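TA notes, week 10

Several of you asked for a full example with nothing omitted. So below is the full record: structure tokens for the whole chain, then the designed sequence directly under it. When grading your own attempts, check the secondary structure regions first.
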């Protein structure tokens, strides 16, 4: 049966936008996986310490990116409405928000070792965590500002430029990691300090390159995003915060859920923490596809909202969800087939001390297979809801799903039964499934009420 012409056209438009966004997300996670794989070959203590640093860094990063994520939906809505001046104002103030948020966060990250000690993390891993964060933290302002510019080019339906820059960053990061971690090409062996320098250098490069392109090349330069940059625009600034704060809170709920599990995992020792870090890599990689699809849903739904096309706005949400569900079902099969092969990438199996880490990581991966579909659905539906500027109630859903159903049950199973660390992974399955069901119900409810945000 042939698809109606308008449906086929919308599918084509979705894939044209979603494909580079997905590739960009995969490139981003490839950089993290490269860091983890190379650090893992330094030893399990170094890997555990880096894990703790990355968890703290990541929760701050996603909170800042969540707050600036409103620039994607707002810029897309104004682009759909043909309001070029408003697109410029949104992106310019988005960069303001990025700067004002991240520099205090960099200062806060200087107290990492004190924080980790306070929450009872393994003492053996703390020096390594502190060493890594000392250079990693400086990448934060550039990483968040890069996402604002990426939202800008995506809102204009031209996200490929951000992908090519990110792809170049992947190769540059791998080269710098190898050189600075292990002391190659005549450079000193800096180990974890070198890994942080590599990440910071790459983020400076990516932000700077994308900024130059958006200022100098058509059609981006027509928007003059840095024109009168120092001039405040409090109306748009407040709107970014009003819509973005619930997104940031929701991102914090989700990321905090995963990171809290990592911290609780640390209470079971270095072996469990290292195994957890290895096992979480594969579902993290697969999640980048629905995450990119969710970003595409935000833009396309937002553009339909700008045109006041309510039918297309909701149709796009369901189409993108179907694509995500198909992909994540395939990911489930993949995880069940190659757990041992994948886990071996991140740890040296020739060392006897790493055998328990490997075995535990494989057992965790089997649980990861069961939450793939739910993880994909909640990411895409959340993206579609953002395109509708519906952010407050999804935030409440995230709090209930991740922290009550997910973490609450996981902790009970981990400490009140014989499941131990495995109970935390069961919490992943329950929490993500609850989020997918409740967010889908929310999207369906808005569709039945013909909800459309004000222009």
């Amino acid at each position: 049966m042939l698809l109606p012409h308008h449906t086929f056209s919308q599918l084509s438009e979705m894939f044209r936008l979603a494909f580079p966004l997905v590739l960009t997300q995969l490139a981003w996670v490839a950089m993290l996986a490269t860091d983890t794989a190379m650090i893992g070959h330094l030893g399990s203590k170094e890997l555990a310490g880096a894990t703790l640093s990355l968890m703290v860094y990541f929760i701050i990063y996603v909170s800042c990116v969540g707050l600036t994520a409103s620039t994607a939906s707002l810029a897309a809505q104004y682009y759909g409405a043909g309001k070029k001046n408003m697109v410029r104002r949104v992106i310019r103030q988005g960069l303001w928000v990025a700067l004002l948020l991240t520099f205090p966060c960099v200062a806060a990250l200087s107290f990492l070792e004190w924080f980790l000690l306070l929450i009872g993390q393994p003492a053996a891993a703390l020096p390594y965590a502190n060493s890594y964060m000392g250079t990693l933290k400086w990448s934060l302002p550039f990483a968040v500002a890069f996402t604002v510019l990426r939202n800008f080019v995506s809102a204009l339906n031209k996200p490929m430029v951000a992908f090519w820059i990110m792809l170049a960053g992947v190769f540059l990061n791998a080269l710098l990691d190898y050189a600075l971690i292990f002391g190659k090409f005549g450079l000193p062996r800096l180990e974890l300090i070198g890994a942080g320098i590599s990440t910071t250098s790459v983020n400076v490069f990516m932000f700077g390159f994308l900024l130059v392109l958006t200022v100098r090349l058509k059609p981006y330069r027509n928007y003059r995003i840095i024109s009168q940059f120092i001039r405040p625009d409090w109306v748009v600034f407040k709107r970014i915060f009003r819509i973005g704060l619930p997104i940031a809170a929701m991102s914090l709920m989700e990321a905090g859920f995963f990171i809290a599990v990592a911290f609780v995992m640390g209470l079971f020792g270095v072996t469990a923490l290292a195994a957890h870090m290895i096992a979480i890599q594969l579902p993290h990689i697969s999640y980048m596809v629905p995450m990119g699809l969710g970003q595409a849903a935000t833009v396309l739904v937002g553009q339909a909202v700008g045109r006041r096309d309510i039918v297309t706005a909701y149709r796009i949400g369901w189409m993108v969800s179907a694509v995500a569900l198909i992909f994540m079902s395939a990911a489930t099969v993949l995880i069940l087939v190659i757990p041992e092969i994948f886990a071996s990438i991140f740890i040296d199996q020739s060392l006897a001390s790493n055998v328990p880490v490997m075995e535990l990581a494989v057992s965790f991966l089997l649980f990861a297979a069961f939450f793939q579909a739910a993880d994909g659905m909640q990411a895409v539906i959340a993206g579609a809801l953002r395109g509708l500027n519906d952010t407050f109630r999804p935030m409440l859903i995230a709090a209930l799903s991740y922290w009550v159903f997910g973490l609450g049950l996981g902790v009970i199973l981990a400490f009140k039964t014989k499941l131990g660390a495995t109970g935390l992974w069961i919490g992943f399955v329950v929490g993500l499934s609850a989020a997918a069901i409740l967010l889908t119900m929310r999207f369906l409810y808005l569709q039945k009420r013909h909800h459309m945000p004000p222009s």
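The two ends are 37 Å apart (CA to CA). Use that as a sanity check on your answer.
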